[in-house]
Specification:
Keywords: Disulfide bond. By secondary structure, the chain is α+β, with helices and mostly antiparallel strands. Strand 35 and strand 36 form a beta hairpin.
Length: about 850
């Protein structure tokens, strides 16, 4: 053992003498690069004979070819030979050691009173290189070098992980024997394969040799995969034997020793990529905190027989766990010896596990086990694709628990040295709760509400019903049912239907409508009811609502329906883009509505009739909608107090809206502010029958006639009349004493409207000055009304003359047709004046007998009667 017959030492200027030796026979290309500017070579030989061998033939063969000899052995009878070449190199040309000028290598700070110890700090800002002594040449013998890497500059909330690696196979080689490598085996050795008395490199997970050993390396000629500490400190210990033969495994080797690259990775302190020192690799995440997030394999190296568990716990019984992988890869280190079995195995369980090794002791259901490189879990890699290329991840492409716990277990049988797993997965706790009861034979989100008292409800938050769960379209119907004598109070507190839909309050009809008109293929919230069986009344269309201005409504009937429709969802759409939240209450209706104002009494039929509508201290039935049905083959004509409402011309907060049955928007909206003005409304189909474009106009007292229906295929003979008032939206309609009836005086109506606009406090300050101002305003307004009335009267006369002329021509044509067919002509009547019915019956007969124009005679008599 050792070098008993002699040795060679190299001493450098300013460096302490190292008691390591080279001896024996050298072979191959041995180079030594000094660390200083001067070297001293010392050669000592003991008991060496300078005479030739007794066998001249052996002397000629030399030590390499002598039979039975060790090519590295030094025989006492061999002659001593030493041949050296030297060269002086400039530092800037030594790029392999010092790096290129534009990116110089930082080789560490030397520790005083040591031969080769180095300290590296904050390598995230430097090009740190860990090199063996005298790299890239032969390193001295009998050394123990320590390389301490420390990261001190760490961002808040992050953890620094120090990493070393060498992807270049030519820059890592550590001899593990002093005998020549005749077999020329260049594979990297790890762990126990490296002899403790030879050359080796140990990597510690910390700053002392008492820290966990991440890897022990020797030999080489191959790349070195990443070795990562679990914190900001990493210690490498390089040990060389006391003596060695200057004998290399390949005569072509140009680089000796090793060089390792240093990197620093920053990860979130609370992420699963980091295992705190001294703790188990266990992660427990519950829905009590974050509703969704990401989990990933530890970013640092782990020891053999380590198992990492990720337990995802849903707190609420209505929740399940959804997990999908965005990235998954088995990384096998070809430079490391392959393990005898699967080094890394991933298990996925539906439920909680107790032992990974023995699945029989677990009550959880195994959803998957992945070990081989060719067998991977389900991966949704297209979820985060840019822009429109993103693809949603459906439940079939992911893992969804049936219980409240989903567990992942990753077992490292051989640690992370021979192979490791990289994965990134996203988890989400899916709330599958839905309010109300399932609607029989309904869809997955159709619900029915019948409970009292006031309760909250909302749209579903199940992501699998939205675009992010793979759906393109969603429609949920919410039905509220009460007893016949009850009504539903509804309040929508918050809502959102995407970025392109907005709620618009129409001043014309005092209704809430959607900016996209709620058309087919558009996302919207429709609120409707059926005051009569089979007859739907649309109350509102909503998009965006906030709690500072909620939507309020009281039903006319004992049932109400909300249709929540979402269309054209993309891979990013979910319940945060389309939702609503509200509350409902079932209350008792006024007694008058129970006894005298049922749906049958508010359904009007016949050829003509009168009814009263309003919302005030009178009969509460006046605030209920009316359904008017025309006889077969007839149109409907309505004569109403007021004038056609627009966005600016109506000074009261009430509207009379007329709907065609099945329509979602009014065909006419009447402002009931003026009692001396009348509006005439015609049902749909009249326009085509009379070839007159307007469907409603002021002051035209023209009744529909069944003879005008020739060649008209599309018309509506039923209309619905609804009285919309702001008070209804404030849920006071059940108390009729809080309102004024529409039949009140005009001045009272205006005063009530002024009080509503100015507020109760301001309107009560009726001092003398305000009265004078009010009188002046009233006189000014009265003057303007008289002027407008005169202008309207002139315009009315002109329009009436034009219309009468047109109608007379039409009447004469029809009369001629009837004379040819011998069919008697009926006389149009005023459906609002039932006292004239007998008179009109007699007049019909007289007019026909006298051959007079019944239409002009009818107008003359009507003026006389008034």
């Amino acid at each position: 053992m050792g070098c008993p017959d002699g040795y060679l030492q190299i001493e450098e200027l300013t460096r302490p003498l190292n008691f390591g030796y080279w001896c024996g026979t050298s072979w191959g290309h041995n180079q030594y690069y000094s660390e200083t500017s001067a070297v001293t070579i010392m050669l000592r030989v003991f008991n060496v004979s300078f005479s030739a061998s007794d066998n001249p033939a052996d002397a000629r063969m030399g030590p390499m070819n002598r039979p039975g000899s060790n090519p590295g052995a030094f025989m006492p009878q061999d002659p001593m030979m030493l041949k050296l070449q030297y060269r002086f190199l400039k530092k800037e040309k030594s790029v392999l050691r010092y790096g290129v000028p534009y990116s110089p290598s930082f080789r560490g700070t030397g520790i005083p009173n040591t031969f080769c110890d180095k300290y590296f700090e904050n390598c995230d800002k430097k090009n740190c290189k860990i090199q063996s002594p005298n790299f890239p040449g032969l390193y001295p013998r009998n050394l123990t070098c320590r390389y301490h890497i420390k990261q001190t500059a760490i961002p808040d909330g992050k953890v620094a992980l120090v990493q070393v690696s060498q992807p270049n196979p030519h820059l890592f080689y550590i001899k593990d024997r002093n005998a020549p490598h005749v077999s020329r085996d260049q594979k990297l050795q790890v762990g126990s394969a490296c002899h403790v008395l030879r050359d080796y490199l140990v990597v510690f997970d910390g700053n002392t040799t008492q820290s966990n050993v991440l890897a022990t390396l020797c030999k080489g000629g191959t790349s070195v995969s990443s070795i990562t500490a679990s914190g900001p400190d990493l210690l490498l210990l390089f040990h060389t034997s006391a003596f060695d033969f200057p004998f290399q495994d390949s005569p072509r080797r140009k680089v000796f020793g090793f060089e390792l690259d240093v990197k620093v990775e920053f990860v979130d302190k609370e992420s699963t990529a980091y295992v705190r020192p001294g703790t188990e690799c266990e992660f427990s995440i519950s829905s009590k905190g974050q509703r969704s997030g990401y989990i990933q394999a530890p970013a640092h190296s782990l020891l053999p027989n380590t198992t990492c568990n990720w337990k995802l716990i849903a707190i609420s019984p209505s929740e399940v766990v959804w997990l999908y992988f965005l990235h998954y890869r088995h990384i096998f280190h070809e430079d490391m010896p392959s393990p005898a079995q699967c080094s890394n195995t991933l298990f996925i369980y539906d439920g909680e596990i107790t032992q990974v090794e023995n699945s029989r002791n677990n009550s959880a259901v195994r959803l998957g086990q992945f070990c081989r490189k060719d067998k991977l879990p389900k991966v949704c890699s297209g979820v985060h694709a840019p822009g429109p290329n993103a693809v949603p991840c459906s439940p079939s492409d992911s893992y969804v628990s049936k219980s409240q716990i989903l567990t992942l277990a990753l077992r490292y049988a051989a640690g992370t040295a021979p192979a490791h797993v990289e994965f990134l997965a996203r988890y989400e706790f899916v709330d599958q709760r839905q309010w109300g009861e399932p609607t029989p034979e309904g869809g997955p989100c159709d619900r029915t509400f019948t409970m009292m008292p006031r309760r909250l409800f909302a749209s579903p938050r199940d992501v699998f019903l939205f675009g992010r769960g793979g759906r393109k379209r969603l429609k949920c119907t919410y039905t509220f049912k009460a007893e016949e004598h009850q009504r539903i109070e509804l309040r929508i507190i918050r809502s959102k239907m995407g970025d392109d839909c907005h709620t618009v309050f129409q001043q014309t009809s005092r209704r809430y409508e959607c900016s996209n008109n709620g058309d087919e293929g558009k996302s919207s919230i429709w609120i409707s009811e059926e005051p009569w069986e089979g007859v739907s009344l649309t109350r509102a269309c909503l998009c965006d609502t906030n709690d500072s201005n909620p939507f309020n409504l009281v039903s006319y009937s004992s049932s109400l329906q909300i249709s929540f429709t979402v269309t054209n969802m993309n891979a990013a759409s979910d319940y945060d883009d389309f939702f609503f939240e509200g509350e409902y209450n079932i209350v008792h209706a006024a007694s008058a509505l129970k006894e005298e104002c049922n749906s049958t009494s508010r359904q009007l039929e016949g050829r003509h009739g009168n009814f009263t509508m309003g919302h005030g201290r009178g009969n509460p039935c006046h605030s209920q909608p009316r359904l008017v049905k025309a006889p077969d083959g007839a149109f409907i004509f309505l004569k109403l107090h007021g004038y056609g409402a627009s966005a600016t011309n109506c000074g009261v907060a009430s509207r009379i809206n007329i709907y065609a049955v099945g329509g979602v928007a009014p065909i006419a909206s009447v402002c009931p502010e003026r009692r001396d003005t009348f509006t005439h409304v015609f049902s749909s189909g009249w326009e085509e029958a009379s070839q007159h474009k307007p469907t409603w106009r002021d002051r035209y007292n023209i009744a529909d006639h069944e003879d005008y229906l020739d060649n008209v295929d599309d018309f509506n003979t039923t209309v619905m009349i609804n009285f919309d008032n702001d008070h209804i939206n404030h849920q006071k309609y059940l108390n009729p004493d809080d309102y004024d009836d529409l039949d009140m005086d005009e001045d009272e109506d205006k005063e009530s409207d002024n009080q509503r606009k100015k507020g109760d406090k301001k309107s009560k300050k009726k001092n003398k000055k305000n009265k004078q101002k009010g009188e002046r305003r009233r006189q000014k307004k009265l003057k303007k009304e008289n002027e407008d009335k005169k202008i309207n009267e002139d315009r009315r006369r002109q329009q009436e003359e034009q219309y009468i002329q047109q109608h007379q021509n039409l009447y004469i044509q029809q009369q001629q047709q009837q004379e040819q067919q011998n069919i008697p002509q009926a006389l149009p009547r005023d459906p609002y004046n039932t006292n004239e019915e007998n008179l009109y019956n007699q007049m019909d007969k007289d007019f026909l007998a006298q051959g007079k124009d019944p239409y002009h005679q009818y107008l003359d008599n009507l003026q006389k009667t008034k």
